[in-house]
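Researcher: Let's do a round of design. I'm pasting the structure tokens now; please hold your answer until I've finished.
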């Protein structure tokens, strides 16, 4: 196969170009330097504080030594010589029941107060037909008031006499008025139907604003964790069952991932039983994008965890 003059010229031209390129000075290709990413975070210094667990309950104020009064015989309630709030002595007449029926007549049967106290309930009116199982009245000592509430079976392990509480009256809702109280009696049995245990509290001071029959909200202090390291629960990350936080290193502006062990959790505050020390600084905002060893810029501090740890947390219990 013969090469034409045109093809020969094209080959010679390509060889010449390659020769020129081969003799050009070689230059090294340099990539522009990559900028290191710096993340913006907020931090908080770790310190020790007390962490108070509590239960939120509902209850009712009742007179101490309350007793229901029943008639000895059935019939028609003909007379009630007392009124609600009347103080009666033991043995005082509080009602009369006429056991008569058509065609037969009997003397009225008196109903006496079995104890001294105040009439706290008179549910019936004159003329009502009653039986021996009908409650005529309730008598109690309203000068000594107590609170009755029910606690779920799942929460009774923390109960003991003497536990303190703050009691808010529904009548003064929104006024930030609390009345101190404490547990003085705990029922020895659990109700099989409601799966609750009855608990009784007594007010620490007398106050005329507290009346029998009032509905109350109870803040019952239970377990106190003293002088423990606490952190906000929001700053705790988890992966494969492991909990960790990021510790800020002020010397080089980086963060370190630190595995921790937590204990009680109360109102968004967690007790740290292992992994952190007093004085260390942790990241409390912006930690979702971090990794071990990355650079960060501190733009603010949330303050020490001491004030946060003093917060009290809820372990809510159903109430009666």
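Researcher: That's everything. Go ahead.
Model: Designed sequence:
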């Amino acid at each position: 196969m013969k090469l034409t003059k045109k093809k020969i010229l094209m080959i010679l031209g390509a060889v010449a170009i390659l020769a020129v390129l081969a003799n050009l000075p070689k230059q090294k290709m340099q990539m522009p330097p990559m900028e290191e990413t710096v993340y913006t975070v907020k931090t908080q210094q770790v310190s020790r504080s007390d962490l108070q667990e509590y239960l939120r309950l509902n209850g009712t104020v009742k007179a101490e030594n309350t007793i229901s009064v029943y008639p000895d015989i059935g019939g028609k309630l003909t007379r009630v010589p007392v009124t609600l709030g009347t103080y009666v002595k033991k043995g005082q007449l509080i009602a009369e029941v006429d056991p008569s029926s058509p065609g037969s007549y009997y003397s009225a049967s008196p109903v006496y107060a079995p104890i001294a106290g105040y009439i706290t309930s008179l549910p019936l009116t004159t003329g009502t037909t009653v039986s021996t199982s009908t409650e005529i009245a309730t008598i109690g000592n309203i000068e000594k008031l107590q609170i009755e509430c029910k606690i779920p079976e799942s929460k009774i392990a923390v109960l003991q006499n003497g536990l303190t509480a703050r009691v808010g009256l529904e009548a003064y809702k929104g006024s930030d008025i609390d009345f101190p109280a404490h547990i003085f009696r705990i029922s020895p049995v659990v109700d099989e139907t409601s799966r609750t245990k009855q608990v009784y509290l007594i007010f620490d001071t007398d106050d005329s604003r507290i009346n029998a029959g009032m509905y109350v909200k109870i803040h019952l202090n239970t377990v106190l964790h003293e002088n423990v390291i606490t952190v906000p629960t929001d700053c705790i990350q988890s992966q494969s069952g492991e909990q960790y936080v990021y510790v800020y290193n002020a010397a080089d502006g980086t963060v370190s991932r630190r595995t921790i062990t937590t204990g009680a959790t109360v109102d968004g505050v967690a007790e740290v039983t292992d992994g952190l020390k007093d004085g260390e600084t942790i990241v409390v905002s912006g930690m979702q994008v971090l990794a071990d060893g990355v650079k960060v810029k501190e733009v603010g501090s949330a303050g020490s965890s001491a004030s946060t740890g003093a917060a009290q947390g809820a372990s809510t219990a159903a109430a009666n």
